[in-house]
Amino acid sequence: MATLLSRSAILLHFLPFFLTFNLANSESFIGVNYGQVADNLPPPAATAKLLQSTAIGKVRLYGTDPGIIKALANTGIGIVIGAANGDIPGLASDPNFAKTWVNTNVIPYYPASNIILITVGNEVITSNDPNLMNQMLPAIQNVQSALDAASLSGKIKVSTVHSMAVLKDSEPPSAGRFHPEFSTVLQGLLSFNNATGSPFAINPYPYFAYRSDPGRADNLAFCLFQPNAGRVDSNTNIKYMNMFDAQVDAVRSALDSMGFKNVEIVVAETGWPYKGDSDEAGPSLENAKAYNGNLIAHLRSMVGTPLMPGKSVDTYLFALYDEDLKPGSASERAFGLYNPDQSMIYDAGLSKQQQTSSPPVVAPTPEVLKSPVIPAPTDPGQTSKSPVMPTPRGPGPTPNKAEFLNGHEATILQSLIMFTVLILTTPDVSKSPVTPTATVPSPTKTNNNATWCVPKAGVTDAQLQTNLDYACGQGIDCTAIQQGGACFEPNTLLNHAAYAMNLLFQTAGRNPLTCDFSQTAMLSTNNPRVVFMPEEMPNVKNTEKKKMASRDLELLIPVSSISENGRSKQTSPPSPPNVNSTPNHSGHEAFSKVIRSWASKNVILLPIAITFYVTWGFIRFVDGLGFITSITFIFLVGIFMSSWLGTSVLTLGEWFIKKMPLVSYIYAASKQISAAISPDQSSNAFKEVAIIRHPRAGEYALGFITSSVILRNRDEEELFCVYVPTNHLYLGDIFLISPDDILRPNLSVREGIEIVISGGMSVPQILTTVDAHAKFGPRKPTYASKV
User: Fold this and answer.
1) Does residue 714 carry a pLDDT above 90?
2) pLDDT digits (tens, 9 = 90+) for 330-379
3) Are 597 and 13 in contact (CB under 8 A)?
4) 99-108 — which CB contacts under 8 Å span 24+ positions?
5) Nearest partner of 380 among 230, 222, 173, 225, judged by Cα
6) What is the mean pLDDT of the chain?
7) Which has more pLDDT, 54 or 527?
8) Residue pair 162/202 in contact by the 8 Å Cβ criterion
9) Cis before residue 319, ω within 30 degrees of 0?
10) CB neighbour burial string for 741-757, b if at least 16 within 10 angstroms, e if fewer
11) What is the mean pLDDT of residues 222-227?
């Protein structure tokens, strides 16, 4: 019974997220190149099965092999197909040839096969063929016209792929500029990209950058995302910690300099060979694993690059398999991630089990040397085990979201059915108030297989400082270990480095590759939290010591509260006296609490998902007029519902809903949430407007006081619940804050809501504060005084 309850609890708690994130089984920003210059490749069906077992969300083909395209049908995997350089003259000179090409290579397979991008040529601009270069844009335009004629405009993009050699300057990244000799052709291509929303596809290879200058200090580490001193852009004063970001930002600067700031970048190829000839610098199994593994972790962190923060550029790894028939050095035949028998050549972290399910981390401002991120005397460093620099190969597409969803409709429906069956088969639970027996967790061990990244014993202070600088230079938020931060004490290099190293590891989805730090770190199942008492903090004022006396300085993952002697306490309130509780009764109550928690906290995702699918259905209903249709429909529904007939229908509908066992509870919870965040004057869910210090020192957040609680520990301390919206009013965070730490602006709740909805445009130029208890007095405790 306990096992059933445990599994049911987990399913119920995460069902709304299954609905919202069901499409994330594969990661749309991670793709792979599928080259075919080989005589030992497995059948397409076997490759399709392999791809579905990984986190790879897209595949780039250099041609239009029908066997592969068919094998990928109904998998939801995005497919990039390519027109060869030899096809460009025909495509450019004859629109009918372009129509035939589309009718042969696209129409028979789409939309079952999720073709998202067509690349016309590969690295044509740097091919030293002026005729081909001048024919490329007409060829692309004719392919686009053929797609338009087939009613595929906007569903499948068209572009081409470029080598990094199109750049005249790439260092520092802010000075990135295209070669003047290519400016005329690029102006036309970029204008096309901008008009159609197609990406600028580039092939950055840190490996080739390393190979061209292997003797440069820290060059290998810089290319492999490993700890290094970093490189400062003298124009922006931004420190770059890896070659990949520097190369991509150089392309961004080049595009911006030509006025195409809205053209998205796709990394069509990047990779590292795992072996090579004896005279080749850089190829090795360790370097290949480090580069690809650290790159994948970097993409998953959603940190982005300094010039494009907060998002991951679509990136296609080179390559799925080795191509044993390619000419050239041995490294050219050793870029593969998998063997022909589908076994891994090395583990780059692409299996679905290695994906993180954590929400993406919002990228902080890139490190600028004028304001160091941490209280360390030396400059932050960064990372990389492998080489650096690009080679031309192929583009990466921008996925067509509507068609991607198409391939996953069956899975989404399965989730909805599972949700319904699970709820309808839930047994009735008693409404009697019963508190289940609390389990006291161990103070240092966890029971959920959690892992932490910690420094190894005997690591020198110099290496700890390097690790600290490197981790904070990756874009994680290290303000907690700055002076005055929540985790500044104990003020030791070891504790600060351990915090930063573990935070980077957790942010990257607990990928073991991110807990290497030049072999100075290790994984641990012991929670590396630190608990300290006032007498251990001589540099902290007495008032602050009192506040921090029992604070748990857990590294990243919250745990239960800590008692005076450092032992763990139960996190649930004490059981009320004289309550008879049987195991079966307790199990029912635990299950009931799960349902209540799920419905009250996560049900908001259900109407969001329904709204999304309804709107999406209308947009697809009338091609080209979907938006107008949707807006008109919503407008007419609004008029109808405001009439007496609409009100009557709504009342009747609510009556039916309230008679349905589970649906009535979900509807009531949703309605309560909607009422709580409604800007209607009649709503009193928001007591008053509050300003709190968040998320770091010197920054403030606008929120709303919703209630107050009494924290019962050694002293009875009153805390206010402050709701800080993060997405208009519908999503946000709850903070429990002492009244002394809250600033109360002279704003009404309606004015506060208007500020949030307007994105801050309606905020007054001058804010004044009011008396702390003028509007909302403290809530008195309802329990007996402590003995």
Assistant:
1) no
2) 999 999 999 999 999 999 999 886 664 333 333 334 445 443 333 333 33
3) yes
4) 99/146, 99/149, 101/143, 101/146, 102/143, 102/146, 102/147, 102/150, 103/146, 103/150, 104/64, 105/64, 105/66, 105/69, 105/81, 106/81, 106/147, 106/150, 106/152, 106/156, 107/150, 108/66
5) 230
6) 75
7) 54
8) yes
9) yes
10) ebebbebebeebbebbe
11) 95
Domains within the chain, CATH numbers bracketed: 23-205+243-352+391-405 (3.20.20.80), 452-553 (no CATH), 603-676 (no CATH), 680-787 (no CATH)
Lowest mean pLDDT segment, chosen from 68-82, 186-200, 486-500, 643-657? 643-657
Q: What letter does residue 119 receive in the DSSP assignment?
A: E
CA distance 645 to 635: 16
Helix, strand and coil percent figures for the chain, each rounded to 5? 40, 15, 45
Taken in order 370, 373, 378, 381, is the CA torsion positive or negative? negative
Pairing of strands 382-384, 225-228: antiparallel
Closest residue by Cα to residue 63 from 81, 86, 85, 38: 81
Whether residue 582 is predicted with pLDDT greater than 50 in this model: the reply is: no
* The pLDDT of residue 616: 63
Two structure tokens written together for 171: 């260092």
Q: Which residues pair with 128 in a beta bridge?
A: none
Tell me the sheet residues that pair with 78. Answer: 58
Active-site annotation holder among 27, 269, 489, 589: 269
Q: How confident is residue 287, by pLDDT bands cut at 50, 70 and 90?
A: very high
Kindly provide the residue ranges of all beta strands, DSSP E only, lying in 5-55, ordered along the sequence. 27-34
Pairing of strands 700-712, 716-727: antiparallel
Q: Is 83 exposed, middle or buried (0-12, 13-18, 19+ CB in 10 A)?
A: buried
Active-site annotation holder among 123, 264, 554, 688: 123
Q: Which of 698, 748, 706 is nearest to 725 (CA)?
A: 706
**Token pair of 15, please?**
């069902």
CA distances from residue 723 to 206, 686, 687, 688 in whole angstroms, order as listed: 45, 9, 11, 11
Q: What does the alpha-carbon distance between residue 72 and residue 47 come to, in Å, rounded to a whole number? A: 9
Active site residue 269: yes
pTM of the model: 0.54
Tokens 């692309």 belong to 140
Beta-carbon contacts of residue 206 (< 8 Å; ≥ 6 apart): 223, 224, 242, 243, 244, 247, 270, 272, 291, 384, 386, 387, 388, 389, 390
For 241-277, the DSSP string reads --HHHHHHHHHHHHHHHTT-TTPPEEEEEE---S---
* Spatial contact of 226 and 518, defined as CB atoms under 8 Å apart: yes
**Calpha distance 67→44 (Å, rounded):** 6
The rounded distance, in Å, linking the Cα atoms of 133 and 727 is 46
Say if residues 208 and 388 touch (Cβ distance below 8 Å). Answer: yes
Contact in structure between 247 and 295 (CB atoms under 8 Å):
no
Q: How far apart are CA 225 and CA 544, in angstroms?
A: 39
Burial call 347-357: b when 16+ CB within 10 Å, e when fewer: ebbbeeebbbe
Euclidean distance between CA atoms 277 and 305, whole angstroms:
33
Q: Which residues pair with 700 in a beta bridge?
A: 693
- Structure token pair of residue 133: 């270069």
* Residue 334: DSSP 8-state: -
Q: What are phi and psi of 466, to 5 degrees?
A: -60, -45
**Can you give 642-669 as a three-state secondary structure string?**
HCHHHHHHHHHHHHHHHCCHHHHHHHHH
- Who wins on pLDDT, 92 or 532? 92
Assign 658 a pLDDT band (cuts: 50, 70, 90). confident
